[in-house]
Amino acid sequence: MSVNKHQAMAAQTDGRIGALETSLHVLEALKRLGGAGVTELAKELNIPKSTVYSHLSTLRQNEYVMREGDTYRVGLKFLDLGEHARNRMGLYDMAKPQVDLLAEETGELANLLVEEHGEGVYIYRAKGSQAVQVDTRAGMRVKLHCTSLGKAILAYLPEEKVDVIINRWGLPERTPQTITNRETLEEELANIRERRYAQDDGERLPGLRCIAAPVLDQNGRAVGAISVSGPKSRMRGEKFTKEIPELVQSAANVTELNMTYS
Known about the structure:
Elements: H1 5-13, H2 18-33, H3 38-45, H4 49-61, E1 65-68, E2 71-74, H5 77-87, H6 90-106, E3 109-116, E4 119-127, E5 141-142, H7 148-154, H8 159-169, H9 182-195, E6 198-201, E7 208-216, E8 222-231, H10 237-261
Antiparallel strand pairs: 1-2, 3-4, 3-8, 4-5, 6-7, 7-8
């Protein structure tokens, strides 16, 4: 990623603040690199070291960045902001007990995901006694078309919004099982609406299967999705086709009722 003159000019014409965008690019690079020094960041972002240092100094003074020797890292102040953003969502409060129960009942990994800016964002997960360790975490973003959670949400969004999401992000391949064709995706979304749950058979992570159900508002639009994930060796037969689908649908239904009548 580079911060260049073209971006700066664009920021001037559409109301964005160029200096703030640079600070955000610095933070994103720190996250991506797992921490870095001024020289490494300047090279990564293709901007002068003096500019990087000024932004890091400001971020550090405001406690958004910490320094260990010559290495800067994203500070824990963002954890507080993240908790605030998550907790303001009524969905989180209503769905969390259901996600915890799913993890306990199945022994697998249970997840809660919402859509933001056309991507899926994990806002909670709970690990059952047999849950496998995967790369997901609260705050992680994924493309919607390659997960059961994302497909469950896409199936219940307005068609025009789905168009905007796909036009922006495309349908990139994550594994050989990923749906990368728009017509195939449309057929999959129609099937999801018919059965009221979505499946993911190694479409984002090889060997991992997932079942998700959408959480719908009173207008029938998805506000999120709840899922159970597990290794293909355990998620098979009736467990994959009947037991888990019924459990996630029940969890989504209880969440919907609690959101409506709480």
